[in-house]
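The authors assume throughout that readers already know how a fold can be written as discrete tokens. For illustration, here is how one protein appears when written out as sequence plus structure tokens.
>
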Amino acid sequence: MPLMTTSRGPAHWLETSAVPGAPAVVLIHGLGGDAGFWAAELPALAAHYHVLAVDLRGSGRTPGGPAPFSTEDLALDVLAILDQAGIDRAHVVGFSMGGTVAQAMAVAAPERLRSLVLAATFASTSTQARLFLQAVGAVYGSGGSPAQVYALVLPWLFSDGFLSSPAAAPYLEFQEDPNDQQTCADWLRLLQAMLAFDGRADLPRIATPTLVISGDEDRLAPLDGAHTLVAGLPHATLSVVPGGHLMNVESPHRFVDVLTTFFAGVDAAVELRPANPA
């Protein structure tokens, strides 16, 4: 399957195109991640979809900048990527911080979303997660290294059972990514944008078919936050997947199956919808 690395202007993304005319899927990573976060999902999704995995502003190979920005600014960035890629509508998948960006996209340009998937995310950061992330940000901003930050965050990323299993071995040590150009200042600006986001009042405005996915042992984006999303969104369903915050790593096949089943249902409904009369 061909994989293109695309950079036009400041934006960078990975793109796969399976068959001509396939529905588009846009994947938006979380804090500290980049397009490479979706390495396991890309091949599975690319078999049936035109997939874009973006690097958000200040992440991966997309540069940041000296000024603060908001989650709404990040949403406009992703919409601009869709324009550059020639995509009118897409299934939009946001993971953790990326889920707040996806919500902002659904509010700003609902006509651009075929569906919305909110994975391991929230309408606003929980108090426990906020206090933890502010403490991590203080360590990083005071000279802490990326490796130290990763060591602090690691226990919150996975379930206890996974961390004690042999499958966790590749994730226990920080791995330097030569393609990641993110600076400490970039990370802190992304953190502030995420912590400032509160989309609870906007949830009733999002009429897009929505799937909320939560790990059953997620501590960073607890299941309570998923229930808040489902209760506030007019057309949302909840799927609970075994695992912690990175339940896509702990239960990869289940995660992809939930995604593709949801997409198929939305696409079938679109195809059955009668055309507008002339």
User: Anything to note?
Assistant: The chain has one domain: 3-272. The longest strand covers residues 11-17. Residues 3-272 form a domain with the Rossmann fold fold (CATH 3.40.50.1820). The mean pLDDT is 93.
